[in-house]
Amino acid sequence: MSTVTTPHSGRAASPTVPEPGEPPASAAPDGGTAPAPRRDAEASRAAILRAARHLLARHAHADITLKAVADRAGVSAPLILKYFGNKDALFARVMSFESDADALLDAPLEALGRHMVRHLLEGQTQRGADPVLRIVFAPLQGEQGDILRANFRAQVSERLAGRLSGPDAGLRAELAVSTLLGLGVMYGIARGSHLRATTIDTIVDRYAPAVQAQLAP
Prior knowledge:
The structure is a single chain. By secondary structure, the protein is mainly alpha-helical. Helices cover 57% and strands 4% of the residues. It contains ten helices and four strands; from the N terminus they run E-E-E-E-H-H-H-H-H-H-H-H-H-H. Strands 1-2 form a two-stranded antiparallel ribbon. Strands 3-4 form a two-stranded antiparallel ribbon. A hairpin with a 5-residue loop joins strand 3 (26-27) and strand 4 (33-34). Helix 7 crosses helix 8 (169-189).
């Protein structure tokens, strides 16, 4: 392997070695080696999580390899190990709904039905998927599906119930979430042609009252 000599000390400097998953260094105009542009760590993590979620919605957990996740995310498998440690740690993150619930429930209670419906639809149209819909694929996942279900109940349904006052808060929360998931399945999975041809504003106006009605005491 060749080395680069520093102009002032005359000592050989170690060549620049890119991070796993990063492009190699490019040549600088003066003939030296320019530092490789570093991939944004948060963007890489987000791409890896999106890829893992996509694959989990289509394949059993046991059949998904780190290489498949890496190929879809556009990174290397060693970079996944660097950020997440191992496959189990990566999918523990994927099977959590904590951050998804943060966004889904981020509205005052009186406007929450509209917010939830809009958030789900915009997830489909702008981001290609709504992460909360991962719960509908739990039957594919065997024991991992039990983890998905437990996380969903605790992090989405029970968290929503905790915000509701009055009787039957748990029931009302589950009815509101199931109403929302029905729309998500028809829009994002069955891809209903009439729904897909209708503006988000129109769907929100027509559908949000059904979700909001379940949130009311």
